[in-house]
What we know:
Number of domains: 1
Largest sheet: none
CATH architecture: Orthogonal Bundle
Strand content: under 5%
Radius of gyration: 15 Å
Order of helices and strands: HHHHHHHHHH
Structural class: mainly alpha
Low-confidence stretches: none
CATH class: Mainly Alpha
Oligomer: single chain
Amino acid sequence: MTNELYQKAIKFAGEKHATQKIPGSEANYLVHISNVAMEILMAYSAQKNFNIDLAIQAAILHDVIEDTDTTYEEVKKNFGGSVADAVLALTKNVSLPDKRDQMKDSLSRINKLSKEVGMVKLADRITNLQSPPPHWKKEKIQAYHEEAKLIADTLTEKNTYLMTRLLERIEAYHQYL
């Protein structure tokens, strides 16, 4: 992995997410992005059997289409088709009526691409399984936990390190139920 790829992606994401905060926090959204990237880097240090360049760029950019006004074409122009396809697969289709259907659709699209894309989704959920925002009701916390289990059940055989981490985080999340 080159430093230039990382720096280009983090600058792009930083500009796109400039005003966004982590839900339930005053922390800038780049904290979340850097945590997802760190999970990918730790997985690579455990086993170098995947395309780190694709995985790290997708990790850093995974929410730019979903959470900002960034288009697929803009990601493709700046980072190439593979990264843009990854980010698009990681983006929920909000035209679907139900959040569970949105997640199932995204997971289906993720599974059609390389394992690196699935690894980013695993890393994203690992990072998100921290204490829920104070305003979340019990039902939302339960639904989020169930969604995490769906992710683990659907994205099998992507990366042993990340799957182990996700299963540990799912187990630890029980304390909030």
